[in-house]
User: Which sequence fits this backbone?
């Protein structure tokens, strides 16, 4: 999958009717690229995770979409996978909750992609 995921910040939701859930940069039991490492690897890792969630959950309903959440920290900028949803749309909320439950491990395709992109060579938590 070569999906396009827009980048947003927390502040971009201040005047929005939509809400979001942060999903983390990787499945729950997998290490992630750390702040201070190559930011392009961090972004790639998040995209691979969102692609994996799409493979498992299917396409999101209207009123729901994945995006890169850009976060600012004292030690640098970092990214997380996130899902935006319309809280008044029951199908969008249900999908977002399933995405938030996340995955525990990389699937085989994602594991292959993180190796190909050199992400596994980055320092791990």
Assistant:
């Amino acid at each position: 999958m070569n999906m396009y995921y827009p980048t947003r910040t927390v502040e971009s939701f201040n005047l929005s009717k939509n809400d979001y859930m942060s999903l983390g940069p990787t499945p729950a039991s997998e290490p992630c690229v750390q702040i201070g490492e190559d930011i392009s690897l961090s972004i790639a890792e998040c995209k691979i995770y969102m692609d994996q969630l799409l493979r498992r959950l299917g396409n999101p309903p209207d009123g729901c979409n994945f995006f890169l959440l850009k976060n600012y920290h004292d030690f640098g900028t970092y990214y997380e996978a996130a899902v935006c949803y319309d809280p008044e749309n029951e199908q969008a909320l249900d999908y977002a909750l399933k995405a938030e439950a996340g995955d525990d491990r990389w699937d085989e395709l994602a594991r292959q992609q993180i190796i190909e992109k050199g992400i596994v060579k980055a320092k791990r938590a």
